Each structure stands twice: as structure tokens, then as C-alpha cells.
Amino acid sequence: MSASTDFDCIVIGAGVQGSFTAYQLAKKNQRTLLLEQFVLPHSRGSSHGQTRIIRKAYEEDFYTHMMGECYELWAQLEKEAGVKLYRQTGLLVTAPEKGRSFQLIKNTLQRNKVPIVILTPDNFSQHIPNVHLSEGDGALVDVTAGVLYADRALRTVQSQFQKLGGVIRDQEKVTDVKPGAVVTVTTSAGVYQARSIVITAGPWANTLLGHTGLHLPLEVQKINVCYWKEKVPGSYDLKRRFPCFVVPECQETDVHIYGLPSNEYPGLMKVCLHIGKKTDPDQRDQQSDRSDIALLKRYISRCLPGLEPEPAVVESCLYTMTPDRHFVLDRHPTYKNIVIGAGFSGHGFKFGPIVGKLLSELALGEVPSYNLSPFSVARFQGKLQSAL
Ligand SMILES: Cc1cc2nc3c(=O)[nH]c(=O)nc-3n(C[C@H](O)[C@H](O)[C@H](O)COP(=O)(O)OP(=O)(O)OC[C@H]3O[C@@H](n4cnc5c(N)ncnc54)[C@H](O)[C@@H]3O)c2cc1C
Ligand SMILES: O=C(O)[C@@H]1CCCC=N1
After folding, report:
1. Complex ipTM
2. How sure is the predictor about 290, in pLDDT bands with cuts at 50, 70 and 90?
3. pLDDT > 60? residue 338
4. CA-to-CA distance for 21 and 130, rounded, in angstroms?
5. How far apart are CA 335 and CA 20, in angstroms?
6. How far lies 142's CA from each of 123, 252, 304, in Å?
7. Which pLDDT score is estimated for 364?
8. How confident is the model at residue 300 (pLDDT cuts 50, 70, 90)?
9. Is any atom of ligand 2 closer than 6 Å to the C-beta of 318?
10. Listing from the earlier edge strand, what are the strands of the sheet with 338-342?
């Protein structure tokens, strides 16, 4: 097969990160090809489903800083495409008041002048009905936070990319990557060449990077995405401005829990554990561990008494975890024209627009707009394996 050299850049993987990267490259007049192994849209990776949380509430300043610009980029896309992608609901954070997470999040929000409301045990139920605040827990609301319409966002950014002249080839799996001054990408249907490529393959990142001799310390986990029935329909509804919530140190279960108001399935609220069991992305449905659901049932019985403590719907989604839970946004250590966006560790969706901007800057050899040292490959020194 002869190679097609019609592209400046090839992006591998059309999840949220690859789609926004391709869109940013096309905006910069780069002839861009976005390759996806499955027929789009699909539900085999990490970016499917109707909703995601967007928030500035983070322990680390660097995420809160990036979210400032990221909200603007989401709003720009909404305006450009004439669609609504974000709905403000606020985000409730509850955790032991004197604990590390609560203090770090509160301090980061205050230092960065993000509007928040601090709730006390006395006024809590007046603001947040149908939620039990555990003894010793602090509570605050990140007012800027809300829900992103995830599937709609993906459709929108892909269609804007195509309007800019970008090319999407789905059902085309990349089977080989040959580094060089011009990178050669072989797929199930053809061979392409480009000056640079971006690998945004989600749970399959290491399979792709293996062709370049790199193996990152990533763990793919299967998340049971649970929806719980409201005893009284509407009690936790988005339309009544019930907030999203995170419980970074849950007293009942000792794990990180999060939830979104009922919206996508009428009368059902999404509440999940922010951790799953290790899996192989190609064998996701063969892994059927449900021990997390027992923990969630305990939490729901105690803290969300308006929900039936039995999940009504359970769906699947994948996390790709790094050891420190921070992303990988970097150039390949050996091949500078191969850019990596990986390890989004279950919290990357909201960052899609800014990740796209940063990865496009790296692909074009520009100085990135933010300090990317927290996201470097080099931080894994000692944990990197050669894949050759
Ligand atoms: C249940 C759940 C809840 C979440 N909640 C939130 C939240 O509230 N807020 C938030 O900000 N984030 C959240 N996240 C995290 C967020 O959704 C992910 O970080 C993000 O979707 C990762 O996107 P990605 O593009 O890296 O991966 P993916 O979406 O998996 O995209 C990678 C793509 O690459 C393709 N691909 C792989 N290999 C090849 C190949 N060889 N050839 C061609 N194509 C290939 C795959 O098919 C896939 O489409 C959540 C994730 C899950 C699972
Ligand atoms: O990223 C997010 O906001 C959500 C909620 C907390 C856990 C993971 N995803």
C-alpha cells in the first residue's frame, strides 16, 4: 500500500481529548486526520454517556488555573456551534472538615477567588435537601460548577472539526506507528504519513505507544456507572438545581464518591465510586466485579435517604489511571513529533478544550500555554518500561 501524505497531523483516537486536539489543529489551518478504531459514536472507551461534572474545585492550583480558560473555551464552542453544552448546578463538596482534601480544596478555591458558599450543619439541609451531612463533615459549594452534556459535546466538536475541513475516518484501527521525520501510520484500511502525530487512545494508550518503544505506568479500570431511583420523583433533579457532588474522603466507605443530579434517565440519579477494578479494555465485559456497589449501597442508605438503595441501571465506562492521578501531556521522550495525551485518571472530560489546545501546541512545536511539568513523562522515571 502506498502512503497518503495529505495530512500535517494525524490524531489517533476520537474520544474527547483526540476530538478537541483535532479541532484545535484544524483551527490552526493544519490538514488533520482523526482516526478512530470503532464506528462513531461508541461506548467502549471513556468519553461516552450523557453527562460529566465540570468544576474548578481541585486540591491543586494548576487544575483550577487551567479550568479558568477552559470554561471560556467551552462557552466559545457553544456559541460557535449554537448548542448548549453546559448547565450550571454548583458542586457540593463534603468531607471531614479537618481532613486534608476538604482543607486543600477550600484553600485552592479561596486563593483563586472562585465563588463558593460554605455551609454549616445548621443551614445545610435548608440549602441541600434530602442529603445527610455526617458528623464532623464540612460542606462547601463551588458555585461555578455544573454538568456538561458529554455525548452532545463530542458530536459538536467532531462536527465543528469537519466543518473546518478536518477528516474523520472511523472503523479504522491503527495497527502500526513508524517514527521518523515523517511518521507513518498504518491502519486496518490504509497507510498515512504526517509531520507529527498525537496519540489520544485512552485505555489503549500503551498498545499504541508500544509501537514506539514506550510503556507508561497506566492502569485501566472498569467503572460501574450506577443510577439510583428517586423515592419521590424530582427530589434530586437538575431542573430543581440539585447540585453535582463529590465526597473525596467518605466516612462511610473510605473511598471517593461522586454524583450528578437526575437528568438523563428521568427519576434516576447517577452516583458512582471514583475507583474501579483493573481490566483489559478489550475484555471489559468479561470483568464483572460488583464489590463497589455494596459500598455505594451503604453510602446511599445513610447519606441520600431519598434514593432506593439498589441501583436501577448499571452501565460501564473505563478509567485510565496514572500512579499520581495526574494526566500525561507531553512529547514522546525519543520522538519529539509524537505527542501523548493519556492517563486522564477519571477526571479529564471537563479539560477537553484546554487539553486539545495544549496537545495541538506540542504537535506544532510551540511553547505550551501552561507549565506542563505535572504532566510530564519524565515524572515516571524508574517506572517506565521499554516496550521493544
Ligand atoms: C464513569 C465515568 C465518569 C466520569 N466522570 C467524569 C466527570 O464527571 N468529569 C470529568 O471531567 N471527567 C470524567 N470522567 C473522565 C473522562 O470521561 C475521561 O477522562 C475522558 O473521557 C478520557 O478521554 P480520552 O479521549 O482520553 O479517552 P477515550 O474516550 O477512551 O478515547 C480514546 C479513543 O481512542 C480510540 N482508539 C484506541 N486505540 C485505537 C487504535 N489503535 N486505532 C484507532 N483508534 C483507537 C478508542 O476507540 C477511543 O475512542 C469520567 C469517566 C468515566 C468512565
Ligand atoms: O472529574 C470529576 O469531576 C468527576 C467527579 C469526581 C471524580 C471523578 N470525576
Report:
1. 0.99
2. confident
3. yes
4. 41
5. 22
6. 17, 23, 20
7. 98
8. very high
9. no
10. 167-169, 32-35, 9-12, 196-199, 338-342, 328-331
Residues 334-353: what's their mean pLDDT? 98
339 within 8 A of 331, measured Cβ to Cβ: yes
Residue 111 sits in the same domain as residue 198: no
What range does the domain containing 34 cover? 9-47+151-215+324-381
Round to whole Å and give the CA distance between 126 and 117: 13
| Grid cell in block for residue 252 | 462511610
Inform me whether the pLDDT recorded for 386 exceeds 90: no
- Nearest residue (CA) to ligand 1, atom 47: 37
Q: Give the closest residue to 364 by CA, choosing from 22, 9, 20, 69.
A: 9
Final residue belonging to a domain, choices 300, 321, 342: 321
Kindly report whether the global pTM for this prediction surpasses the value 0.90: yes
Task: State how beta strands 338-342 and 196-199 pair.
Answer: parallel
Residue of 16, 17, 47, 53 best suited for mutating to test ligand 2, as the one with most atoms within 8 Å of CB: 53
